[in-house]
Amino acid sequence: MTTTFVGSLTWRRAIKTFVPQPPDAVPINVDAITAAAAEAPTSFGLQPYKILVVTDAEIKRRLRAVAFDQPQVSDCTHLLIFCARTDIEDRIASYVRSTGCSTEHASMIGGFISGLRNQTAWAKQQTMIAFGFALAAAAELRVASCPMEGFNPDGVSAILDLPHYLAPTAFLALGYACPTTVLMPRFRFPRTDLVENIAALRTVPATAVPSRYRHVTPVRKRREKLE
């Protein structure tokens, strides 16, 4: 049966009940799913994340205890744990060594990173891009999955003895859906609510309203005062 990519996304559901691999089922191609995540775009190509693939039953059981006892964690065949990397400076150094990029480019990356208000939050945003690619790949392969954020990150780190620079960000449970489970109705807001086409610049009225920031002291003057 020929399917489209969007059709696969429409097929995808958050599966809450997994069963052991049926005798006639095709093994899950987890390598293809993690490969898709590894190909996801990230800012500057730094890929500040790591994907842990957990298959051990005892480890999954212990992780379930710090994930509000959600059965998907222990019943899935593969539990993918997406962790953001917080060792950004080391990541930049590794990137520079691997790519041989120019000093100017490396300096530009470093300047951007050092100017971030919250580097960990930025790394988690990049991690979620890879997470989305993995979720879409699972749908394309028709692998039952369940994206999850309901867990205690500190508990996960303790169970897996993770290094300090890995921050558990999201779970992706993969497995075989229970055929008798009644699923909740699928809902999506209409695209007209989610997508807006802007084909031209919006005109500004001749009597534009003064900026509410007009009273703010210019940056240069503020700096002069501070000096």
Query: What is the beta-strand fraction?
Result: 5-15%
Number of domains: 1
Structural classification: alpha+beta
Helix content class:
40-55%
Question: What is the fold's blueprint, element by element?
Answer:
Elements: H1 5-11, E1 18-19, H2 30-38, E2 49-54, H3 57-65, H4 71-75, E3 78-85, H5 88-99, H6 103-114, H7 119-140, E4 144-148, H8 153-160, E5 166-177, H9 191-194, H10 219-226
Antiparallel strand pairs: 1-5, 2-3, 3-5, 4-5
Helix pairs in contact: 2-7, 5-6
Written account of the structure:
This protein is α+β, with helices and mostly antiparallel strands and 227 residues long. The chain has one domain (5-183): NADH Oxidase (3-Layer(aba) Sandwich). It has ten helices and five strands; from the N terminus they run αβαβααβαααβαβαα. The protein has helices at residues 5-11, 30-38, 57-65, 71-75, 88-99, 103-114, 119-140, 153-160, 191-194, 219-226; strands at residues 18-19, 49-54, 78-85, 144-148, 166-177. Strands 1, 2, 3, 4 and 5 form a five-stranded antiparallel beta sheet that branches. Helix 2 (30-38) packs across helix 7 and helix 5 (88-99) packs antiparallel against helix 6 (103-114). The model is unreliable at 215-224 (pLDDT under 50).
Features:
NADH Oxidase, 5 strands, alpha+beta, 227 residues, single chain
In short:
This protein is α+β, with helices and mostly antiparallel strands.
